[in-house]
Design goal:
Keywords: Coiled coil. This protein is mostly helical. It has a domain of 39 residues. The protein contains 3 helices and no strands.
Length: 106
């Protein structure tokens, strides 16, 4: 009884085959899309994940290098700001008669 019921249902048990066929069709028409992420699921899914994994590893490594570089730049900027604040404090203390006032608006 259950098999008769499933025979009349319109469930795509092999939808991944149609998805792969559609992807191949459009790649043939337009050429492969570089950097496109493919979602592979199902029992007959293609094993293209090792290439994606390698790309992710390279991308993460480059982002880590960029992150370290940016951390260095931020640290240098913080040091420069600290030095400028120290210079400003020295200048403010050396000239007590001259105070910076905000211009008054009319």
């Amino acid at each position: 009884m259950a098999t008769n019921f499933l025979a009349h249902e319109k469930i795509w048990f092999d939808k991944f085959k149609y998805d792969d066929a559609e992807r191949r069709f459009y790649e043939q028409m337009n050429g492969p899309v570089a950097g496109a992420s493919r979602q592979s699921s199902g029992p007959g899914a293609s094993s293209g994940t090792s290439g994606d994994h390698g790309e992710l590893v390279v991308r993460i490594a480059s982002l880590e290098v960029e992150n370290q570089s940016l951390r260095g730049v931020v640290q240098e900027l913080q040091q420069a700001i600290s030095k400028l604040e120290a210079r400003l404090n020295v200048l403010e203390k050396s000239s007590p008669g001259h105070r910076a006032t905000a211009p008054q608006t009319q």
